[in-house]
């Protein structure tokens, strides 16, 4: 299934992994937000953890169609996501993400913390108030 990606951390424009992974591979990047999740510090990179009432801010990234499969594979590796592997740091899930400009909700791939990571973060992680990686204390 070809979906846009919702990025909320180091893949956002101006952040460390944006140019390494996305430059020249996308046709559109628009601000958006994911409801039902909160953001935790990695440290060095964030984790979205699903939680009712939360919101995470980021961008919806639409890949160039001819480059989609390669980008998907590269992002899965970056996020240490292996389908079905409980040791994965992240899980890639389909969620509805709202485009900030027009309020339209679209299905998108989102990398959320894997179950073991999410449980650890809920117990003793540092939650980022406001759900925006760009406003974190550096």
From TrEMBL:
All copies of domain Gamma-glutamylcyclotransferase AIG2-like, residue ranges: 5-134
Species classification: Bacteria, Bacillati, Actinomycetota, Actinomycetes, Kitasatosporales
Pfam families assigned: GGACT (PF06094)
Protein name: Gamma-glutamylcyclotransferase AIG2-like domain-containing protein
Domain of life: Bacteria
InterPro entries for the chain: AIG2-like_dom, GGCT-like, GGCT-like_sf
Organism: Streptomyces mangrovisoli
Gene3D superfamilies assigned: Gamma-glutamyl cyclotransferase-like
């Amino acid at each position: 299934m070809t979906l846009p990606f919702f990025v909320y951390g180091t893949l956002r424009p101006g952040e460390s992994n944006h140019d390494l992974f996305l430059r020249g591979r996308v046709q559109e990047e628009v601000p958006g937000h994911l409801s039902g999740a909160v953001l935790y510090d990695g440290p060095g990179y964030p984790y979205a953890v699903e939680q009712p009432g939360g919101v995470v801010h980021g961008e919806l990234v639409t890949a160039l169609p001819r480059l989609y499969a390669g980008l998907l594979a590269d992002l899965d590796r970056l996020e240490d996501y292996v389908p079905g592997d409980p040791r994965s740091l992240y899980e890639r899930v389909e969620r509805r993400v709202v485009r900030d400009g027009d309020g339209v909700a679209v299905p998108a791939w989102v990398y959320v913390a894997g179950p073991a990571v999410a449980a650890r973060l809920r117990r003793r992680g540092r939650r980022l108030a406001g759900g925006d990686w760009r406003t974190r204390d550096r």
